[in-house]
């Protein structure tokens, strides 16, 4: 965990130092919703679930056509399964990651851009939720349970965005995990050993 905060500190420190050397660099905040699922393995028949994301970013102009945008984002992702019977039950697995997307943006017009880049994440929390009718119960995972999954996750992202004004913008992004979630030699890990994260993000951003 210390390594994660150290890495985040390095990213934020780089953002701060870069601001003093390039007047074109701008900072911002962003947030929105996630529509995520877990693919393959035990989770082949799962549904997409709603979650949320939020964090900070730095936008660095590289030229008139290209920008570089590193971010530090908390992403709440996972998947759910619904069973039908005498009463409908929804079982969901929720995974919370601190992620660092490194996006390169191509400006199609001054307002519209497309983007692509890698995303690196660290698993910080997880829980299982069961909703049975009007009753909902949550089981938060212990540190030992979390350690049965791979804490680090890597993926790739593509997206597009639109700058509504000089400050406000909207962004849509698709992220697909490259690394498997589980460890093969653990009880919980075996359930996730062929599984990967998949996520669609939609949100607002504000640039200072």
UniProtKB/TrEMBL annotation:
Residues 18-181 form the Outer membrane protein beta-barrel domain. This is Outer membrane beta-barrel protein. Gene3D superfamilies: 2.40.160.20. InterPro entries: Beta-barrel_OMP_2 (IPR025665), OMP/PagP_B-barrel (IPR011250). It comes from the Bacteria. It comes from Elizabethkingia argenteiflava.
